[in-house]
Specification:
heterodimer; A: about 110 residues; mainly beta; 7-stranded mixed β-sheet; 4-stranded antiparallel β-sheet; about 0% helix; B: about 110 residues; 5-stranded antiparallel β-sheet; globular
């Protein structure tokens, strides 16, 4: 079974703080993704990575950055947290080898920015 | 830009009834299709893939209509535990939907009532 873990289930931060969200997967998947999910807006792709040190912007990258130094680890960074970044953050992975494969999600991190 | 559209619901259905919902997609080059289930405050999990010939898994039946560009999910003999949000997912390589081309619908909320 694919296991995708996220560093925190719940997080409370103050406006202006730097926030790190970490995602680790154990399936040797090439692709990793960060989404945020808000009521009525569905899943929105922030950034993705298809290889170590490679990253691509998704639909809503503003205010975020990412880091992928190792294949199994993909970090999402909020340089200066703002209240509109309060959301559920979901990490996902998929294999590039089997294109019909789908994505596997971590349990999510609920971030509250005060 | 490609889109995946679903009726957000909620669908309120009595226990034991049959319920069906559709998802339409705009990219005719889409190749793979999936239904995910997401429980409240949890991550999305793959429910089933959707094959061209249609497929069944217990009480769940998924069908694909390429001509009209929609997929459907049918749930028979619905249970209280079927209450969840059902996300339609479409894979359209080279369409900008992330490294693997997956695009998620916003989901259909299903409530099974006793």
């Amino acid at each position: 079974d694919v296991k995708v873990t996220q560093s925190s289930r719940y997080l409370v931060k103050r406006t202006g703080e730097k926030v790190f969200l970490e995602c680790v997967q154990d399936m040797d998947h090439e692709n990793m993704f960060w989404y945020r999910q808000d009521p009525g807006l569905g899943l929105r792709l922030i950034y993705f990575s298809y290889d170590v040190k490679m990253k691509e912007k998704g639909d809503i990258p503003e205010g975020y950055s990412v880091s992928r130094e190792k294949k199994e680890r993909f970090s999402l960074i909020l340089e200066s947290a703002s209240t509109n970044q309060t959301s559920m953050y979901l990490c996902a992975t998929s294999s590039v080898i089997r294109l019909s494969e789908t994505q596997y999600f971590g349990p999510g991190t609920r971030l509250l920015v005060l | 830009r490609k889109e995946v559209e679903q009726d957000p619901g909620p669908f309120n259905v009595p226990e034991g009834a049959t319920v069906a919902f559709n998802c339409t997609y705009s990219n005719s080059a889409s190749q793979s299709f999936f239904w995910y289930r997401q429980d409240c405050r949890k991550e999305p999990k793959l429910l089933m893939s959707v094959y061209s010939s249609g497929n069944e898994d217990g009480r769940f039946t998924a069908q694909l209509n390429r001509a009209s560009q929609y997929i459907s999910l049918l749930i028979r003999d619905s249970k209280l535990s079927d209450s969840a949000t059902y996300l339609c997912v479409v894979n359209s390589p080279n369409s900008g939907g992330g490294a693997d081309g997956l695009t998620f619908g916003k989901g259909t909320h299903l409530i099974i009532q006793p």
